[in-house]
Every structure is written in structure tokens, then in C-alpha cells.
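Suppose you are handed only two things: the residues of a chain and a line of SMILES describing zinc ion. What would the bound structure be? This form records exactly that question and the answer produced for it, so the two can be stored side by side and reused later without any lookup.

QUESTION INPUTS
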Amino acid sequence: MEKARISISIDDGKKNFLSVADKLIKLNIPATLNIVPGAIDKSKKVEVETFSKEELVDLYKTGIFEIANHSNLHTNLEEDIIEGRRKLVEWLNLDKNAPLGFASPGSEIKIKKALESEKRLREMGVLYLRTHDEGGKEEYKRLDELYNKTKNPEYYVKKESNAFYSKGDFAISSLVAYKGVNDLEEILLLTDHAVKEKKGLTIMFHNFAKPNEELYSNVWTFGSDRFYKFIEYIDNYRQQGKLDILTSKDGLER
Ligand SMILES: [Zn+2]
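ANSWER OUTPUT
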């Protein structure tokens, strides 16, 4: 029977992910890690430390994480997308022709453009493209105001309807999880909707930190305490047979 599917998509390959990785491994919760290879081999300077190459290989070897490309230098330039994939293929010892998922840095490539460029992107070894696309700005703003005023979940679900995907899609949009805006309450709300409607849902994360850590105040940080509540929540649905937790690649393919 068709059931809901949820994909956790984590950007930039930051070292702080390692603080929550063990819990994901223990609960067998797959996730997609979108890697900036140039930050790992120090071709690019970054503010928040990334995994080392060895840590990346170890994560890959657990078998539960999909390693996807976030471009060599975190740009959307063709040569950068190609080079990012080339490095990942080499480091992870992948099949030279294996296409990889691509998370568009800054979500600059929107769904429409991705679909228009699908042929070229596939030639560049892109298996699928993940972005964040709010659709019509006006409508998004209107629904956002309505939700904030009424806290009616229906407005929120409608506002974030692009975060739902279907099997076989090439370009997918994801909800960007961050403090105060798309926080635990909202993520659970979308999850409930995905379960009810048997839809696919992608949620994007960046940093993880505990409340006492400096990084916690960063707008891109999701509290690890809240993240654990989220994964326990989806694990519970999974145990009831109502939801599959899949990498983006598997969510689109299986
Ligand atoms: Zn990024």
C-alpha cells in the first residue's frame, strides 16, 4: 500500500551534524547529506567547520546516509556542480557515471528553471535537484499572514504545499526548518498532513546545536533537543506502518 514518505535533507556538511548522527544511526533514520567538497578540501573558506574527508567517508559507509552534491564551492555554476560531483565520486569510490542528487546552493535554481534545464543537468550527472521554492510570492505572503493571525494549520499546509513531492519528480522543493518560523510545531504539522494524504515531504536542515552552545543562537540552527523530538515522532509513525523515512534519492525512486 502507498504510504507517506519523509526525507531529511541536511545542507553544507557541517561538523555539528556529527552530534546528532549517532542518534540517526541508532534509530536507523536515513538522511541526505548535501556536501560542499571545496569546503572539505579547503578550496573554500567557511564560517562553520565542515566534516573532514575521513568523517564523510565514515558517514557514507554507515549505509544509511545518501551523499549528494551541493557543488564544489557552494555556487550554482555548471563547472562547480560538475567539479563537486567529480570529487565526491573520487572520495567515495563511486561508479564514475553514477548520477548524484544536487541541492542548489541558496536554493537559487527554482523548480521551473530546474525542469527547463533538466536535460542539461542530467548530462552533468544530476540525478534530481532539491531546492526551496515558495511558488507565488504574493500567495505565500497572504497565507503566511493568515496562518500567523489564526494559527489554523490548513493555512500553513497550503503555504508550504511545495514541500510535498511525488515519486519520479526531478525537481523537489523542501521546507527550510529554522527557529521560530518553521520550527518543531510546524514540521510536525506538515508531517501529519503527509501521513494523512500519503504524500512525500522533504525537510531541510543546516546546523544542530544544544541550547547551551554558541551556535544555538544562529538563525540556521535547529535545536538538537527539538530535532530528536522530530525524529522520535516520525519513527513512531514508521512503527505504526504509516510512514517511510527515506533519503531523497530513495524517496523519489522507490
Ligand atoms: Zn548551502
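WHAT STANDS OUT: Residues 4-253 form a domain with the TIM Barrel fold (CATH 3.20.20.370). The chain is about 40% helix and 20% strand.
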